[in-house]
Amino acid sequence: MVVSFTLIVVCVLVAFIWLLIEVKRLKHKIFAIFLIGLILFSYFSFAAIFSGRDINFKSTDGLIEAGQIYFSWLTSLFLNFKVITTNAIKMNWGVNVSSDS
Length: 101
Description:
The protein is mainly α. The protein has helices spanning 2-49, 60-90. The protein has two domains: 1-45; 50-90. The longest helix has 48 residues, at 2-49. It is flat.
């Protein structure tokens, strides 16, 4: 009886330790996926914003201009998301009941 109880306690401890390690690994995976997504978003947004512009990235003035353009675009992107979200919240999402009389 004591051996079986001890075996159950050991199995529970092993499962707990394994679960704890997996949760830590999951946190690292989620953070890595977030960083990869952030890098891809930055690359494609830079490519889309600066594709038709003649900006000199080797000068300080060019870098300042590029930063202003990028952060202006980023601000307008988040403001547009805010407007779309608030408009979606304000909509009447109830069931439309119409009578065909």
